[in-house]
Write the C-alpha coordinates for this entry.
Amino acid sequence: MVTVICISFSCGNDEVAEQSKLYQQIIKTEKGIVRGVEINATPDQIKQQESKRALMDESANYLEYEYEITEEAFVVVTYHFDEKGCSEISIDTYFDTPEKTTEVIAIYQKHFTAKYGKPIVEDNLNVWHNTDKTISVELDYLSQDDGEIMLTIYATD
Protein backbone atom coordinates (compact mmCIF):
# COMPACT_ATOMS: atom_id res chain seq x y z
CA MET A 1 0.00 0.00 0.00
CA VAL A 2 1.36 3.40 -0.99
CA THR A 3 0.40 6.52 0.94
CA VAL A 4 0.61 9.82 -0.83
CA ILE A 5 0.89 12.93 1.28
CA CYS A 6 0.28 16.27 -0.32
CA ILE A 7 1.50 19.36 1.40
CA SER A 8 0.58 22.76 0.07
CA PHE A 9 2.45 25.91 0.91
CA SER A 10 1.29 29.42 0.14
CA CYS A 11 4.70 30.98 0.36
CA GLY A 12 4.06 34.31 -1.26
CA ASN A 13 0.28 34.48 -1.40
CA ASP A 14 -0.09 36.59 1.75
CA GLU A 15 2.53 39.03 0.50
CA VAL A 16 0.88 39.25 -2.93
CA ALA A 17 -2.52 39.80 -1.30
CA GLU A 18 -1.08 42.56 0.92
CA GLN A 19 0.54 44.28 -2.08
CA SER A 20 -2.74 44.03 -3.97
CA LYS A 21 -4.57 45.61 -1.03
CA LEU A 22 -2.00 48.43 -0.84
CA TYR A 23 -2.32 48.93 -4.61
CA GLN A 24 -6.09 49.27 -4.34
CA GLN A 25 -5.83 51.68 -1.40
CA ILE A 26 -3.23 53.94 -3.01
CA ILE A 27 -3.34 53.58 -6.81
CA LYS A 28 -7.00 52.50 -6.67
CA THR A 29 -7.50 51.59 -10.36
CA GLU A 30 -5.71 51.27 -13.69
CA LYS A 31 -8.05 53.90 -15.15
CA GLY A 32 -6.70 57.42 -15.40
CA ILE A 33 -3.19 58.34 -14.36
CA VAL A 34 -3.89 57.30 -10.78
CA ARG A 35 -7.03 56.77 -8.65
CA GLY A 36 -9.22 56.91 -11.78
CA VAL A 37 -8.31 60.58 -12.34
CA GLU A 38 -6.73 62.37 -15.28
CA ILE A 39 -4.95 65.71 -15.35
CA ASN A 40 -7.50 68.47 -16.21
CA ALA A 41 -10.35 66.61 -14.46
CA THR A 42 -12.94 68.83 -12.79
CA PRO A 43 -13.50 68.86 -9.02
CA ASP A 44 -16.85 67.12 -9.58
CA GLN A 45 -15.20 64.34 -11.58
CA ILE A 46 -12.67 63.81 -8.80
CA LYS A 47 -15.33 63.83 -6.10
CA GLN A 48 -17.00 60.94 -7.95
CA GLN A 49 -13.77 58.93 -7.67
CA GLU A 50 -12.99 59.65 -4.02
CA SER A 51 -14.86 58.93 -0.79
CA LYS A 52 -16.98 61.75 0.64
CA ARG A 53 -16.04 60.61 4.16
CA ALA A 54 -12.34 60.98 3.39
CA LEU A 55 -12.63 64.64 2.27
CA MET A 56 -10.60 66.66 4.79
CA ASP A 57 -10.35 70.07 3.13
CA GLU A 58 -11.85 71.79 0.12
CA SER A 59 -11.59 75.12 -1.65
CA ALA A 60 -12.14 76.41 -5.20
CA ASN A 61 -8.68 75.24 -6.26
CA TYR A 62 -7.93 72.43 -3.82
CA LEU A 63 -9.31 69.08 -2.61
CA GLU A 64 -7.63 67.02 0.11
CA TYR A 65 -8.53 63.47 1.12
CA GLU A 66 -7.09 61.32 3.90
CA TYR A 67 -7.31 57.53 4.02
CA GLU A 68 -6.25 55.30 6.90
CA ILE A 69 -4.42 52.16 5.80
CA THR A 70 -3.76 50.89 9.32
CA GLU A 71 -3.88 52.59 12.71
CA GLU A 72 -0.33 53.81 12.11
CA ALA A 73 -0.32 54.32 8.34
CA PHE A 74 -2.25 56.70 6.14
CA VAL A 75 -2.39 58.34 2.71
CA VAL A 76 -3.12 61.99 1.93
CA VAL A 77 -4.32 62.65 -1.62
CA THR A 78 -4.40 66.29 -2.74
CA TYR A 79 -5.73 67.70 -6.00
CA HIS A 80 -4.83 71.22 -7.14
CA PHE A 81 -6.82 73.08 -9.79
CA ASP A 82 -6.20 75.88 -12.27
CA GLU A 83 -8.39 77.24 -15.07
CA LYS A 84 -7.99 73.99 -17.08
CA GLY A 85 -8.96 71.67 -14.22
CA CYS A 86 -6.76 69.40 -12.11
CA SER A 87 -3.19 70.55 -12.65
CA GLU A 88 -1.49 68.49 -9.92
CA ILE A 89 -2.12 65.32 -7.93
CA SER A 90 -0.09 64.69 -4.79
CA ILE A 91 -0.15 61.42 -2.91
CA ASP A 92 1.78 61.44 0.34
CA THR A 93 2.04 58.15 2.22
CA TYR A 94 3.08 57.70 5.82
CA PHE A 95 3.93 54.25 7.18
CA ASP A 96 5.08 52.94 10.52
CA THR A 97 7.82 50.72 9.02
CA PRO A 98 10.42 51.20 6.29
CA GLU A 99 9.43 47.76 4.95
CA LYS A 100 5.91 48.94 4.07
CA THR A 101 7.42 52.03 2.49
CA THR A 102 9.65 49.83 0.33
CA GLU A 103 6.58 47.81 -0.76
CA VAL A 104 4.74 50.95 -1.81
CA ILE A 105 7.77 52.30 -3.71
CA ALA A 106 7.82 49.01 -5.66
CA ILE A 107 4.08 49.35 -6.38
CA TYR A 108 4.55 52.91 -7.69
CA GLN A 109 7.58 51.93 -9.77
CA LYS A 110 5.78 48.99 -11.36
CA HIS A 111 2.60 51.00 -12.03
CA PHE A 112 4.24 54.03 -13.63
CA THR A 113 6.89 52.06 -15.51
CA ALA A 114 4.06 50.03 -17.10
CA LYS A 115 2.31 53.29 -18.07
CA TYR A 116 5.27 55.44 -19.14
CA GLY A 117 8.35 53.25 -19.49
CA LYS A 118 11.62 53.31 -17.62
CA PRO A 119 12.00 56.29 -15.25
CA ILE A 120 14.84 58.76 -14.94
CA VAL A 121 16.44 57.85 -11.60
CA GLU A 122 18.28 60.36 -9.44
CA ASP A 123 19.07 60.29 -5.70
CA ASN A 124 15.88 58.72 -4.24
CA LEU A 125 13.77 60.27 -7.00
CA ASN A 126 12.15 58.57 -9.99
CA VAL A 127 10.70 60.70 -12.80
CA TRP A 128 8.41 59.52 -15.59
CA HIS A 129 6.92 61.50 -18.50
CA ASN A 130 4.09 60.62 -20.85
CA THR A 131 5.01 60.35 -24.53
CA ASP A 132 4.30 63.99 -25.41
CA LYS A 133 5.87 65.19 -22.12
CA THR A 134 2.74 67.08 -21.02
CA ILE A 135 2.60 65.11 -17.77
CA SER A 136 5.38 64.50 -15.29
CA VAL A 137 5.30 61.96 -12.44
CA GLU A 138 7.82 62.32 -9.61
CA LEU A 139 8.29 59.70 -6.92
CA ASP A 140 10.34 61.09 -4.02
CA TYR A 141 11.44 58.53 -1.44
CA LEU A 142 14.20 60.53 0.22
CA SER A 143 12.45 60.07 3.60
CA GLN A 144 11.83 56.36 3.06
CA ASP A 145 13.55 55.42 6.33
CA ASP A 146 11.05 57.65 8.16
CA GLY A 147 8.14 55.89 6.41
CA GLU A 148 7.33 58.76 4.03
CA ILE A 149 6.87 58.72 0.26
CA MET A 150 5.75 61.65 -1.87
CA LEU A 151 4.28 61.16 -5.33
CA THR A 152 3.52 64.22 -7.44
CA ILE A 153 1.86 64.17 -10.85
CA TYR A 154 1.53 67.46 -12.69
CA ALA A 155 0.83 69.05 -16.04
CA THR A 156 3.97 70.41 -17.64
CA ASP A 157 2.33 72.66 -20.23
